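[job 4471] stage=fold_predict status=RUNNING
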Amino acid sequence: MKRDFLGDSCDAVKRLWQQVFAEWAPLYAEPRFIPCEVQDDFTRLTGIPFLTDRHPPGYSILNDPDTGIRLPDAKDQREGQRHIRVATIVDQLRNRGPRCVVTFDLSHDRRRELKHDSQRQVKLRCLAEEGIPAFYYVSHAPFLFAFPDSDSLRELQDRLLRAGIPADRIEATTGDS
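[job 4471] inference complete, writing C-alpha cells
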C-alpha cells in the first residue's frame, strides 16, 4: 500500500471487514504488503492490527497487495508489495491455521482475452482444485475470501449477509468461463 492510497474507499471496506470478523475470527494484516512507515496509520484507519506470531487461535489474515492476485498461469509469478500468488493463499490456509484469508484483488491481466469476471473464475477454480472453498466480494474494491473448509465459508457468508452485504455481491465458482 502506498501512502497516496491510504484513506481511499477501499480502506472503508477493510474497516467493514474488521467489524464483521471481530467476534468470529479477528482480522490481522499481513505486514509484507504495507510499508512500515504506513502501518500505524493503516491500523488506526481500518482497525486491523498486523499479524505477528502472537494472535488468537481463531483468527483471519488480510492480504493487501497494491494490485492483487496473479492469474495462476501467468508467466510472471513474482510476489512483492504489488502482487500475491494463489499458491501463497493456499499455503497460508494450510500452514498458518486461519479461519479465512481475505485478499484485495484489483488485478486484471489486460493481455488476456478474459474479462474481469472470467479471471476471477480462473482463480476460484484454481483454489477449488486445491480443495480450498472460496468466493469473491465483487465491487469497486473486490476481495477474495478463501477458507480451510466449507463450514467456515458458510459461517462468514451468513455474517456478511446479516451485515447487509447484498447476495449478488458474492460470486462463487461457476461452471462457465
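[job 4471] summary: The two ends are 31 Å apart (CA to CA).
[job 4471] exit 0
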